[in-house]
TrEMBL record:
Belongs to the KdgT transporter family. GO terms for molecular function: 2-keto-3-deoxygluconate:proton symporter activity. It comes from the Bacteria. It comes from Thermanaeromonas toyohensis ToBE. Pfam families: KdgT. The chain crosses the membrane at residues 12-33, 45-64, 76-95, 101-124, 136-155, 161-180, 215-238, 250-269, 281-304. Keywords: Cell membrane, Membrane, Sugar transport, Symport, Transmembrane, Transmembrane helix, Transport. This is 2-keto-3-deoxygluconate permease.
Length: 311
C-alpha cells in the first residue's frame, strides 16, 4: 500500500491529513486518547516535545559559512515575510483587540502571516531562482516556529508573554545551530527529523480540535490563506525587485504559511492563557492557510515568471 506516497500528493498532506485524523479521533473516539502510558503521551500530549526536536533539527541545518549574497537575501525575505507583516498585524490587534473582526482573531492572523513554508521555497527556488535563492531558505528556518509570534505579542503588549517563554522558544534552535556547526555529522543525522516528527505532532494537535470548530475555521482559514498569498507574496516580489534589484518571480514564493505553524497557537495559549478562547478556531484556520498557500503560491509564481520572461 502506498500510503505515504498518496498523502504526499496532497499539498501539505503530511501535516494536514494526520491533523484531520486526530480531530476525527477527538470527536468520535475520545476514549482512545485517554488510555494512558505511551498511547496518551504520543497521540494526545506529544506535540510540544516533537516540535522542540524539529526546531533543534532546523537549527542544525544552518551553517555559519553561508555566503554574503545568501545572508542579504535572507534578511530581505525576513523583512518582507515577517517584520513588515508582523507590525501591520500588531496594528490590527491594537485596533480590534485579540478577537479581531468577523472571526479573524489576532492569534490566527499573526501566526498565518509571519512564517513561511521552507520546503516549498526550496522546490520553487530550484526552478525559478539560483543557488543563492535556495540558500535563502534560512529565512524560513528562522521564522518557522513560535519565536517571532511570541516576540511580537510580548513586545507589543497585546499578549502577556513572560520573557522566559520567548527565550525558551529559541533555545532548542540555538542548541541545534551550535551543535550542527561544531559537528557536521550531527547536522546530517538530524536531516530526516521533519519527515519523522511532522505526522505525529500533527495528529496530537488534531486530537485537541473538535471537528465542528474545524468546519467553522476552515472557511475563514481559506480567506486568510488567500490574503497571505497575495499580500506577503507581493511584498516578497517587490523586495526582490527594489531592494535586491532583481527582476525575478522567486520573491513571490515566500508568500506561504508553514505546516509547522499549526502548532504555534497552542504554544501561544500555553504562554498566555488569555488566548485559549481563540485556540479551537485559530488552529484549523492556520491549517487551512497552509493548504491554500501551498496550492496558490506555485501557481502565482509560475504565472509571474512567465510574464517577466515575456516582457
Amino acid at each position: 500500500m502506498r500510503i505515504v506516497e498518496t498523502i504526499e500528493k496532497v499539498p501539505g498532506g503530511m501535516m494536514l491529513i494526520p491533523l484531520l485524523l486526530g480531530s476525527v479521533v477527538k470527536t468520535f473516539f475520545p476514549g482512545f486518547l485517554e488510555y494512558g502510558s505511551f498511547t496518551t503521551a504520543l497521540f494526545k500530549n506529544g506535540a510540544l516535545p516533537l516540535i522542540a526536536l524539529l526546531i533543534v533539527a532546523t537549527g542544525a541545518q544552518i551553517s555559519l559559512r553561508q555566503s554574503k549574497a545568501v545572508l542579504v537575501k535572507t534578511s530581505v525575505l525576513l523583512l518582507a515575510k515577517t517584520i513588515i507583516p508582523g507590525f501591520l498585524i500588531i496594528i490590527y490587534g491594537y485596533i480590534f483587540g485579540k478577537a479581531g473582526i468577523l472571526g479573524f482573531s489576532l492569534l490566527a492572523v499573526l501566526v498565518a502571516f509571519i512564517n513561511s513554508n521552507g520546503g516549498l521555497w526550496l522546490a520553487l527556488a530550484a526552478r525559478y531562482g539560483d543557488s543563492n535563492d535556495q540558500g535563502a531558505y534560512i529565512a524560513s528556518a528562522l521564522n518557522d516556529g513560535p519565536f517571532f509570534t511570541l516576540l511580537f505579542l510580548g513586545l507589543s503588549g497585546l499578549g502577556s508573554i513572560p520573557w522566559k517563554y520567548i527565550v525558551a522558544a529559541i533555545i532548542p534552535f540555538l542548541v541545534g545551530f551550535i551543535w550542527g556547526n561544531l559537528d557536521k555529522k550531527f547536522a546530517e543525522m538530524m536531516k530526516p527529523t521533519a519527515r519523522i516528527t511532522i505526522p505525529f505532532f500533527s495528529f496530537s494537535l488534531g486530537a485537541g480540535i473538535d471537528l465542528r470548530s474545524l468546519f467553522v475555521g476552515g472557511f475563514t482559514g481559506i480567506i486568510i490563506g488567500v490574503a497571505v498569498t497575495i499580500i506577503t507574496g507581493t511584498l516578497g516580489y517587490l523586495s526582490y525587485r527594489y531592494l535586491l534589484r532583481e527582476k525575478s518571480a522567486i520573491g513571490f514564493a515566500i508568500g506561504t504559511t508553514a505546516g509547522n505553524s499549526v502548532a504555534t497557537p497552542a504554544i501561544v495559549a500555553d504562554a498566555d492563557p488569555s488566548f485559549k478562547p481563540f485556540l479551537a478556531v485559530a488552529t484549523p484556520q492556520v491549517a487551512a492557510s497552509v493548504l491554500v498557500t501551498a496550492i496558490l503560491v506555485p501557481i502565482f509564481t509560475h504565472y509571474l515568471d512567465r510574464r517577466l520572461r515575456a516582457s
